[in-house]
Fold:
Amino acid sequence: MSLPCGTFNTRYDQAFAIFRTKTHWVLLIAFIIFIFTVPLFLNPQFFSVINIMMIIMIAVVGLHILVGYCGQISFGHAAFMAIGAYSSALMMNHFGLSFWICMPLAGLITAAVGILFGLPSVRVKGLYLALVSIAAQFIIIYVIETPLQGVTGGQWALRTAVPKIGDFAFDTPPKFYYLIASITILMIFLAKNLARTKTGRNFVAVRDNDIAAEVMGINIVTTKVLAFAIASFYAGVAGSLWAHYQRAFTTSDFSMLQSIWFVGMVIVGGMGSTLGPILGTMFITLLDQFVLRFTPTMTKVLPTLTAAQISSFGMFLFAAVIILFLVWEPRGLAHRWQIFKASYRLWPFAY
Structure:
């Protein structure tokens, strides 16, 4: 990684540090202050979009650990969010547990299920692993809707309560924003540090060449299954937040299409960097909001188009964006950001 002119590494801890210069620390403090003062000057109607975006961001960061770092594909990530959502809601509804206990337990339950579906990754890879993950999507949703119908309510909406701290309830989007923002920052911080640990380096080694990694002494079975467990844990935490933020949800909130868009967010953001899923989630979410606001205008500009044709415009635009990124910028928005940083860090010696 390129450093600003005049900044050098003289110790190993400096080489692995996330924040190196005073500018980094000033920007970090300014960013945290900005995040937690947004509700003071932001229109309340935007909080519903921001809160959903941050919940999805947690799930996509977890998926990136599996796909971007370990090189394992998954098209069933939304189903693992469903496990976290239903686990958290049912534990609160039936056992009266606090949200602060339900959320980590939901993550652990989802991680256990992730290990179960991650075991086939030891034997299969590529398209075969993609098929296994697709099977996980349908199996999990089927189990929730049919065998466990008496507990989960099947296809009917499951309702749950909002989190509380004493008498303070996170019952409005601005209040819930503080909770989601805090957990999102924590989960991103953990993911960033995971990439710098021995486990993170094992993930990258398996992604680049699993045979060479095994020759070097890395346990392939443990590494791949651990990647599925961690990714599922993130999905479970995101699912728990989704359940208590929406208060009522169904299995349709965790469809196969949602899983595909999670992978699309990883692609657009860029793999191999924690910043990638963050930028990818923000880009796709903002693009979705643009489509929702632009679609009514299309009915006036192009009155000959039917409602079905206009509604399909959003799907066409999302698909086109992913194709364009795959062709012209396969390393995603994170790579563009790295290029931008290098252009000013090396100033005035841009060559």
Residues 220-246 form the longest helix (27 residues). The mean pLDDT is 87.
